[in-house]
Structures are given as structure tokens and as C-alpha cells.
Write a structure and sequence with these properties.
single chain; alpha/beta; Rossmann fold; nine-stranded mixed beta sheet; three-stranded antiparallel beta sheet; about 25% helix; methyltransferase; Small_mtfrase_dom; S-adenosyl-L-methionine; SAM-dependent_MTases_sf
């Protein structure tokens, strides 16, 4: 649900997210929050006192959704675009989450360092929804924010994973959502850096190929790879399945067990 801007920057709208549990300001055009953010938000249930970094957080939807579902954790939203980072700050305040949510304007393709904003070894968990497409595979969007959210190079993709690796404490978790066809190169980037890699395919309907993958990996683990049963988004009538509906409303979380 979207309604006209009220008390937000020009060119933005207010939208209900997670079944109305959040009200978020986002650009009226360009990249919009949807299923990917809802699923990523549902991938993690951090314990009290743990710190979660949301890399490439955009307006903060996935991280703020996690903060609403898990009220005793702390969130760090990391976004490179100053205007979009400002919306993330606004959204945290709008939803009463400012005390537990920090927003950093930083480039996640750069390695964390003791001299920078991103400090090594300060995250218990990292979540991220990186750009899905390699240059030349799709027509660039005319909107700069949308283009940046959708396309980056393979070196940049690995840089996001290296950033997460440096941020995480030992045995911390990395969780991400990506296109299914990215799996070979993602596994190559995760190999020898992470273990206990678990993958949950996301299928639009029964019988169709997976359109997305949810991936969770543990820094430094030696546990084996695990391919989990798929999440089915839609039933035969085109509506959400009961599981997908609960995830979109923020009333359930992704099951990572076999």
C-alpha cells in the first residue's frame, strides 16, 4: 500500500511494509521495496544484544523489518547513496527504532579498517541484497538509484562478500538473497571463507525453476553444504501461499534446518 508523501522529502511516498508493521518512505520512482526485502528480513532471528549489519541497505526496509521482529538486537544500515541513506535514517525514526539503528554512509566494496566507518569484527550477523546483474546483461535503468541497485561487476560482488567477512566475528553468519544463476560464482567467493553453507531456493510456483536463492553461511565453519527444500511463493490461483504470506507480514521466519 502506498500513499502520497506526508512529511517526507519531495519525490518520495510512504508505503506499508510487512503487513503494516513498518511505514517506510521511499523514492516515488526507481527501485522499490518488495518481496526480496521481505524475504531477506525473515532470514535471521538474532539473539538479544547481537549486532546485525545490513549492507547496501537502501532505505532500510530489510534491516528495519528485522529490528521490528527482533526487538533486542541492534542494526547497522550501510548505504553509499547520501539521499537514500537519509531516507533510512528517517525510516528508523518514523518507526520508533532510532535508538537501536545506526545508519552509515559507506562503500561496501571497500574493506573495513580500524580507520574507517566500517570496523572489522563488530558484526554478529550480516545480511545483504546486492545488485543482481552483471554489466551488459540487462539494459541500464535511466534512474541512477535503480541502476546502482541492479547492476555491478563480478569484482564488486566478491568485494561485498569480503566486506562481510571482515565485519563478522568468528562463527558469525552471512545471509543474502540473489538470482539463481549467480550460484556458481557466489559459491566460489564463499569457498574457504565460509562453511555450513545452506541454500533455500525460492520458486514462483510449484514446478517452476527457482527465481531467487536465499543463502546462509557461517564464517570459519567446516560444516558441509546443505540444499534445503524450496520456498513456494504463489499457489495455483496466483495468491501467496500461507508460508509466503506469513513471511511478507513479518509473522514468520525462514527455516534453515533440514
Amino acid at each position: 500500500m502506498t500513499k502520497p508523501t506526508t512529511g517526507t522529502a519531495a519525490g518520495t511516498t510512504l508505503s506499508a511494509f510487512l503487513g503494516g508493521r513498518l511505514e517506510i518512505a521511499q523514492p516515488a520512482s526507481g527501485h522499490r521495496v518488495g518481496t526480496d526485502a521481505a524475504l531477506l528480513s525473515a532470514c535471521l532471528s538474532p539473539s538479544a544484544g547481537e549486532t546485525v549489519y545490513d549492507l547496501g541497505a537502501g532505505i532500510g526496509a530489510a534491516g528495519l523489518g528485522l529490528a521490528v521482529r527482533c526487538p533486542q538486537c541492534r542494526l547497522v544500515l550501510v548505504e553509499i547513496d547520501p539521499a537514500i541513506a537519509a531516507l533510512a535514517v528517517e525510516n528508523a525514526a518514523r518507526n520508533g527504532l532510532a535508538e537501536r539503528v545506526t545508519t552509515l554512509e559507506a562503500d561496501v566494496t571497500q574493506r573495513p579498517s580500524k580507520e574507517g566507518l566500517l570496523l572489522p569484527g563488530t558484526a554478529d550477523h550480516v545480511i545483504m541484497n546486492p545488485p543482481f546483474h552483471l554489466p551488459g546483461t540487462i539494459r541500464p535503468a535511466p534512474d541512477a538509484y535503480r541502476a546502482g541497485a541492479h547492476v555491478h561487476g563480478q569484482a564488486d560482488e566478491e568485494a561485498w562478500i569480503l566486506c562481510a567477512l571482515a565485519l563478522l566475528r568468528a562463527k558469525g553468519s552471512l545471509t543474502l538473497i540473489h538470482r539463481a544463476d549467480a550460484l556458481p560464482r557466489l559459491l566460489a567467493s564463499l569457498d574457504r571463507r565460509f562453511g555450513d553453507i545452506r541454500i533455500k531456493p525460492v520458486q514462483p510456483r510449484v514446478g517452476l525453476p527457482a527465481a531467487r536463492l536465499l543463502i546462509r553461511a557461517i564464517k570459519g565453519s567446516r560444516a558441509p553444504f546443505l540444499l534445503l527444500p524450496p520456498l513456494i511463493l504463489h499457489d495455483e490461483d496466483g495468491g501467496f501461499t500461507a508460508e509466503a504470506d506469513a513471511l511478507h507480514r513479518g509473522e514468520a521466519s525462514i527455516e534453515w534446518q533440514a
